[in-house]
């Protein structure tokens, strides 16, 4: 049986996995459930074959483990596998769909990440979570102080003055309110310290990674954005064009056509939302410094005059993403236009 199987589609899970395997003629020769401990022995008993999996949280780990056994492993976006699922949603039908989808010539695949790349992405995801929590803490602090008639301007300086004013008047505030507000301040300060520690680690990785340093030469991309892209895209050649890379990040318009009528909708917002937000934020910073007469910013200056600021920022982010793809694909650094 091990010599007959040429393509295998495992449906990944936490403890119980469904496996579907076919021979060179497409005939089913394996259809069974496996416990987690049985996965490695099962693939170790097969001759080298093609293994397809849906890209998910644990797929990169299993891809590395199965590839060590001599198999060719390909990861696919789950949304691209879904059309191959027949009627009914079961583990067996999902595994069969994966086995079918991985052999399609037009299928797009996801690069397998190393443990180091996944570790850096954990830093980014944890930082993003803590930033959201810090925003929640500061918003709650502002709202509760406003209930007591204490307000301040927006921004970091406004928050600092708000804390200072609270410490001056806390003796005149109700005891329970003071306890609650002090708890919020302590938690917000702790989150700031943790975010700075994570950013320090991300900066260290950025300085040691060649691709991340090259990406940081692009206007609008700093160490945080550069390291996030470098860790998420280990192989830029998986994207045939720069537009395909921008589409993967959800920065290109959604197409809607029917009856010969084509319509361009808003951006698709597919892919990694964190990188997309970072690129748009960086594009907004580039827009603030764009001036007339700068040869490298002529396109952006003209865009600002024709479009709303948000639309122009997304368009600049799309352009930045395409430049990032070229930098990664060609192993170059960014060179600004001088004329």
TrEMBL record:
Q: What is this protein called?
A: IS110 family transposase
Q: List each copy of the Transposase IS110-like N-terminal domain by range.
A: 8-147
Q: Which PANTHER family match?
A: PUTATIVE TRANSPOSASE FOR IS117-RELATED, TRANSPOSASE FOR INSERTION SEQUENCE ELEMENT IS1111A
Transposase IS116/IS110/IS902 C-terminal domain spans which residues? Answer: 213-290
Q: Which Pfam families match?
A: DEDD_Tnp_IS110 (PF01548), Transposase_20 (PF02371)
Any GO BP: DNA transposition
Q: Which domain of life is it from?
A: Bacteria
Any idea which GO molecular function terms this record carries? DNA binding; transposase activity
InterPro entries linked: Transp_IS110-like_N, Transpos_IS110, Transposase_20
């Amino acid at each position: 049986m091990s010599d007959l199987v040429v393509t295998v589609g495992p449906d990944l899970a936490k403890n119980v996995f469904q496996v579907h395997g076919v021979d060179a003629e497409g005939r089913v020769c394996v259809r069974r459930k496996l416990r987690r401990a049985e996965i490695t022995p099962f693939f170790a008993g097969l001759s080298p074959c093609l293994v397809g999996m849906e890209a998910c949280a644990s797929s990169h780990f299993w891809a590395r483990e199965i590839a060590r056994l001599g198999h060719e492993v390909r990861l696919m976006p789950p949304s691209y596998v879904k059309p191959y699922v027949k009627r009914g949603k079961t583990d067996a039908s999902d595994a069969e769909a994966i086995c079918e989808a991985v052999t399609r010539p037009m299928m797009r695949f996801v690069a397998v990440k190393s443990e180091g790349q996944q570790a850096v992405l954990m830093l980014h995801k944890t930082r993003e979570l803590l930033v959201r929590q810090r925003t929640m803490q500061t918003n709650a602090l502002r709202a509760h102080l406003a209930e007591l008639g204490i307000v301040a301007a927006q921004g970091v300086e406004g928050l600092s003055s708000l804390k200072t004013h609270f410490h001056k008047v806390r003796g005149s505030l109700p005891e329970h309110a003071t306890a609650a507000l002090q708890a919020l301040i302590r938690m917000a300060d702790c989150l700031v310290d943790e975010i700075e520690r994570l950013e320090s680690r991300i900066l260290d990785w950025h300085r040691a990674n060649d691709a991340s340093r090259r990406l940081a030469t692009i206007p609008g991309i700093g160490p945080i954005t550069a390291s996030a892209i470098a860790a998420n895209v280990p192989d830029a050649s998986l994207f045939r064009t720069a537009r395909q890379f921008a589409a993967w990040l959800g920065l290109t318009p959604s197409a809607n056509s029917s009856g010969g009528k084509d319509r361009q909708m808003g951006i698709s917002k597919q892919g990694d939302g964190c990188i997309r937000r970072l690129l748009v934020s960086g594009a907004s910073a580039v827009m603030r410094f764009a001036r007339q007469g700068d040869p490298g910013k002529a396109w952006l200056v003209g865009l600002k005059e024709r479009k709303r600021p948000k639309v122009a920022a997304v368009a600049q982010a799309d352009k930045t993403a395409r430049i990032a793809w070229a930098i990664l694909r060609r192993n170059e650094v960014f060179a600004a236009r001088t004329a």
